[in-house]
Automatic annotation (TrEMBL):
PROSITE patterns per the UniProt record, alphabetical: BIOTINYL_LIPOYL
Pfam families per UniProt: Biotin_lipoyl (PF00364)
Origin species: Angustibacter aerolatus
CDD domains hit by this protein: biotinyl_domain
Domain of life: Bacteria
Domain spans labelled Lipoyl-binding: 69-146
UniProt name for this protein: Lipoyl-binding domain-containing protein
InterPro entries noted in UniProt: Biotin_lipoyl, PCB-like, Single_hybrid_motif
Length: 146
């Protein structure tokens, strides 16, 4: 159980506290540092858990940021082409382009590996949901083919 003061006010940098999670099981938890808020409203908190350093990324709800959430592809719609995993996507098509089923519409690069992203249906690219080259998360909508 977390002591009341730390529960109500949180831990300060350099502070450690012992937490009992079960009878006879205790964790030593501490905060080493807190980063500045980034452009997406996130902070990295460097914590220690039983002496091991662990980074924790958290949303700072008090930060004044205007970040547009990425649009997610609808898996039930065959024309929605999604990013298969997180990485940098480079588009190979533009709005109005005709594509065949199985055609490459973009490539994705992550961890020094590159993969083609293809469309499952033939048609015309009706909408491009990202810029020409952009960092995306898995499931983000890339293009809509109708």
């Amino acid at each position: 159980m977390l002591p009341t003061a730390q529960y109500l006010h949180g831990l300060r940098s350099g502070e450690e506290v012992e937490i009992e999670i079960d009878p006879g099981k205790r964790l030593l938890v501490g905060v080493q540092s807190v980063s500045e808020v980034d452009e997406r409203g996130l902070r990295t908190v460097m914590c220690t858990l039983n002496g091991r350093l662990r980074p924790v990324v958290t949303v700072d709800e008090s930060a004044d940021v205007d970040v547009r959430a990425a649009e997610k592809a609808d898996p039930s719609r065959a024309g929605h082409v999604a990013a298969p995993f997180a990485g940098v996507v480079s588009l190979a098509v533009a709005e109005g382009d005709a594509v065949e089923a199985g055609a490459t519409v973009a490539t994705i690069e992550a961890m020094k590996m590159e993969a083609a992203i293809t469309t499952s249906i033939a048609g015309t690219v009706r909408r491009v949901a990202i810029g020409g080259q952009q960092q995306v998360e898995g499931g983000d909508l890339l293009v809509v083919v109708e």
